[in-house]
């Protein structure tokens, strides 16, 4: 069966091809009677415009490329959902690229990023959003920065929760330092003075920001930061278990831990349960990210929400504005939120004197 073309629709409706195109793309007014006739024929023949042909005529593919570091990370679904909803409302679809490293090495991940960048540009995407990977490095290598700059010259490029220092590339981000400060202050207000920080990688900017927010608030409250309680080396559940075992092996242990993310907190919660440590009665925990697991734990996890859905929507809106040619040199900051649940207990100062 021969496929129906735009010329067939125009011929049967007794109108020009340009008129059918105006109805399809809503680019110019068309009389209601004529529009209704064309729409009826489109539905009758189940006509689907050729996307490639439309992209050539409009010089647009209607597609946004999104690069993320690991789609299995439970933090990303809410962000991607917000991004997709806003992008779709503005007529764009997403081309999602997952750069998770099968070897567990950063170099392989950055190579995958470069491969996907080439693929997306080849597909003539209208804009690109970059999340994680090299944009989260505190000091990215020069060639990684240079590639991002070259991309930004070819298509609108937006970073989410990351930064390419000195490039001026726009970004939408959450104030992660403020989030850690909120969490630390909440623990202090609950009476805790023996507080550890666990998780992350010190070469990543998000870890540094969270540690800086923690340290800033501890100093502001004249509370000592114990070097042996500042742990790093992982963002997953298994690393959280290891952090808890490390703390329990020390001569003195903290009464509370601010975790670099919720997965670390879940790992610590599981390890504490197996070790016979009650949370929050004997150890208080605060997470970071507010992933779905946070409210499903027992006890439910107090955490910092990075407002993933809102960030996704804002990122998509900003990128669409950039594609449309809107000029703005400002990045967009989102404030985090403390979500209080069940994993922190209040303690008296008398009980914090000697933790063994």
**How many separate structural domains?**
3
What is the oligomer described by this structure?
Answer: single chain
The run of helices and strands is HHHHEHEHEHEEHEHEHEHEEHEE
From the helix content, strand content and strand pairing, which structural class follows? alpha/beta
Shape: elongated
Number of strands: 12
User: Into which percent range does the helicity of residues fall?
Assistant: 40-55%
What is the second-level CATH architecture of the largest domain? 3-Layer(aba) Sandwich
Biggest β-sheet: strands ordered side by side in the sheet = 2-1-3-4-5-11
- CATH homologous superfamily title of the largest domain: Response regulator
- Spatial extent as radius of gyration: 26 Å
**How much beta, percentage-wise?**
5-15%
Main β-sheet: number of strands, strand sense, barrel status? 6 strands, parallel
First-residue to last-residue Cα separation: 80 Å
Unreliable sequence segments: 350-356
Give an overview in words.
The model is unreliable at 350-356 (pLDDT under 50). This protein has 356 residues and is an alpha/beta fold. Helices cover 43% and strands 13% of the residues. It is elongated, with a radius of gyration of 26 Å. Strand 8, helix 11 and strand 9 form a beta-alpha-beta unit. The chain folds into three domains: 6-49, 434 Repressor (Amino-terminal Domain) (Orthogonal Bundle), CATH 1.10.260; 62-169 and 308-335, Response regulator (Rossmann fold), CATH 3.40.50; 176-302 and 340-352, Rossmann fold (3-Layer(aba) Sandwich). The protein starts with 5 loop residues before the first helix and ends in a 17-residue tail after the last strand. The chain has helices at residues 6-13, 17-25, 32-44, 51-58, 76-89, 106-122, 142-154, 176-189, 205-220, 237-248, 262-274, 308-323, and strands at 63-68, 93-98, 127-131, 157-160, 171-174, 195-198, 230-231, 256-259, 284-286, 303-305, 332-334, 337-339. The relative contact order is 0.12. The strands form three sheets. The chain has a six-stranded parallel beta sheet with strand order 2-1-3-4-5-11, sandwiched between helices. A four-stranded parallel beta sheet has the order 7-6-8-9, sandwiched between helices. The longest helix has 17 residues, at 106-122. The chain has twelve helices and twelve strands.
